[in-house]
Amino acid sequence: xxxxxxxxxxxxxxxxxxxxxxxxxxxxxxxxxxxxxxxxxxxxxxxxxxxxxxxxxxxxxxxxxxxxxxxxxxxxxxxxxxxxxxxxxxxxxxxxxxxxxxxxxxxxxxxxxxxxxxxxxxxxxxxxxxxxxxxxxxxxxxxxxxxxxxxxxxxxxxxxxxxxxxxxxxxxxxxxxxxxxxxxxxxxxxxxxxxxxxxxxxxxxxxxxxxxxxxxxxxxxxxxxxxxxxxxxxxxxxxxxxxxxxxxxxxxxxxxxxxxxxxxxxxxxxxxxxxxxxxxxxxxxxxxxxxxxxxxxxxxxxxxxxxxxxxxxxxxxxx
Length: 319
Prior knowledge:
The chain folds into two domains: 4-122, NAD(P)-binding Rossmann-like Domain (Rossmann fold, 3-Layer(aba) Sandwich), CATH 3.40.50.720; 125-267 and 298-314, Dihydrodipicolinate Reductase, domain 2, CATH 3.30.360.10. The strands form two sheets. It has a nine-stranded mixed β-sheet with strand order 14-13-12-11-7-10-9-8-15. It has a six-stranded parallel β-sheet with strand order 3-2-1-4-5-6, sandwiched between helices. The chain has nine helices and 15 strands. The chain is an alpha/beta fold. The model has no long low-confidence stretch (mean pLDDT 96).
């Protein structure tokens, strides 16, 4: 892989992880970071030797030597920061969601195509070895006809003032269902509630129907003390339980239970390497493209519409 100068916009909890992983990839130099807090900038300087430290991310984009940027800013800034980076000629990996609306997401995809730049979205479970193995099995008809899947994304979090649990966690569950089965829901029903505040849901239940009749039920919550990241697939021939954290896959078949030999990988680093390899070669940019991010946002908008209207809604299918 050729040498890259990169920058990370936003070095809070997740941004620091990105800087750390870039620091372990040969040929990659984190030339600059931006953040509103001095302590975060100083951390990157002291621990990783980053010399370009800025409060305003737009100053980072002025550096012509920087090839690619990661946008790890608050959700409300994803659209504008990604747009500014693309217009500055930078390849971009933006954390999910791509933007706060599918319309804004499509604008970014169109801009990246116009500028001939790579635009990736941080749908990190597409780089999880357990998910990739289950996707391979599903494509080989390992499960037979798939009846339904359960996705549980739960842990204890504070009531974030800038988002609800649907925007925070549903990108993962919608994206994983698409990644494994190569399909998006055609119908969505969502219910949810806030408990520690008056508005903005902290727990939600989303039931999606796939075009082939498979049902996908997602439980999302910021209220449970135990962190759970699990996917259960129930099929005609076999079923499986996937722990997305430990990357363990347990198969249930004809009364027997066994675990697959999946080697756990570093998903963040795998995603970053894929992003850098895709730069200049659009044919490799397939796993977490901007278009995937837009479709995921369309599913979230469907869930929000269902919640507001109190009924199941239909989601437009791709032409």
